[in-house]
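5'-nucleotidase SurE
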Amino acid sequence: MKILLTNDDGYFAPGIRALAKVLEKDHDVIVVAPETEHSGQSHAITINRALVVKEVELEGVQSKAYSVSGTPADCVRAGVDKIVPERPDVIFSGCNLGYNAGMDIIYSGTVSAALEGSLLGIPSVAVSARWVEGDARYDAAAKIAKEIFDKVEDAFMHYPEPMVLNINVPYLPYEEIKGIQVAEIGDNAYDYYFEEEVEGVRRLSLRGRAKTDHAAGTDRYYLERNYATLTPLVYGMADPHQILRLKSWFDEA
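Predicted structure tokens:
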């Protein structure tokens, strides 16, 4: 199977190397990833300058790899349109340093790269691993991602609409992960606020207080209990119920 692999941490990040090593054992992988980190930039695209593409080497990875001077979404679209010789069957994005669970998926470049794949009609998978003091268990996350993909591959690839699977993996050795839970999207992991400094220039720095109370059945709930989580995502923000309600308001006017 032909796989385009990207991320938002940059082509040099250890997480993408771990995922490439696992996937290239059974698949034809080409890496197309940002030349610099683009965490938290969601579905941004580059419109005011040309993208620079360079062939690069990833330590321990046999697959061809390219850096792109753009965002994760840029990498997917440019990869499919110009860089990859044949249209990929699947897009993989990750392994990200830090969870993309709960409402954090809105801000995630990792998840947005997978969503860009679905917009192009390609089934896609986003993979993220818990961040602990600047480190993550990338090998375990990559192994879990491959295990999930192998299990659902046939149905996933033949589903009528291109699916996006969002995978999160705890900071544990593979053997200590309790299992895989299909989960709903939870809330934020933090109560976000700005820390303000005024020394001639007013500066606002984003901070967060950790939450520990997450609703049962959500990704955050299971991750805190040492399960890996799997959540299907869809692109689209129009609320069909509210559309009907708005139409009724106009009909009444």
